[in-house]
Amino acid sequence: MEETSLFFVKGLLLGALLAAPVGVRGAALLSRSRYDGFAAGSAAAAGAALADLLYAGIAGYLVAGLLAGWIAENDWVRQFGAMMLLWLGWQAYNAPLIAPEPAPSRMSVPQALSNAFMPVAANPTGLVVFVTVFIALGADRFGPDAAANLALGVFLGSVGWGIALAASQAAVDASGQRSINRAAAVLLALAAFAVAGGFV
């Protein structure tokens, strides 16, 4: 039970780290927050996090269920998770600065949520990221409970970071974006080395 609960903490950290770089998704959230207010920005954060939860849930089902036996026989695949985290760190470090533009139209809270959900859910790269990282974290070894805790943690970590970003949008200028992206890059790289070394 303690081990599966630890996966929830890992999920929290993973969700926040993956959501942290201010790319297209973050810029859209900042834009929604600045022009439609904190509630709409928080709804946008929740919408993107729900898409993360969708793919994290599917990844958990695959890793702890359908693919568990194959993963156990092919332990080398765990290194792909470390490589994925390192690649994401490189992407974050080199991410171009995106100036939040005025929102094209004002949106209600439900509209902001669905508008943020769709583009993230339409990008299957998220599934590849979660499958490889969940394998690296060993979710297959601890069964469905561990995978479910990971997915829930990812959702809460993602939505928590998004809401924090929406609340602090006034302070996130170009310099702030660069600082966030580079800090995320360093943390993703450290996570990659921790995964590769078997420390998590």
Keywords:
200 residues; mainly alpha; 9 helices; 79% helix
SSE blueprint and pairings:
Elements: H1 2-19, H2 24-36, H3 38-66, H4 68-73, H5 79-93, H6 109-121, H7 125-136, H8 139-167, H9 174-196
Helix pairs in contact: 1-8, 2-3, 2-8, 3-6, 3-7, 3-8, 5-7, 5-9
Outline the structure in words:
With 200 residues, this protein is mainly α. The protein has one domain (2-196). Helix content is 79%, strand content 0%. The protein has nine helices and no strands. Helix 5 runs antiparallel to helix 9 (174-196). The two termini are 17 Å apart. The model has no long low-confidence stretch (mean pLDDT 86).
Helix content: over 70%
| Unreliable runs | none
How many distinct domains? 1
Compute the separation of the termini in Å. 17 Å
Dominant shape = globular
Q: If you average the pLDDT, what whole number results?
A: 86
Structural class: mainly alpha
Number of helices: 9
**How would a textbook summarize the main sheet?**
none
Measured on Cα atoms, how large is the radius of gyration?
17 Å
The proportion of residues in beta strands is: under 5%
- Listing every helix as H and every strand as E from the N terminus to the C terminus, the arrangement reads HHHHHHHHH
Q: Could you tell me the number of beta strands? A: 0
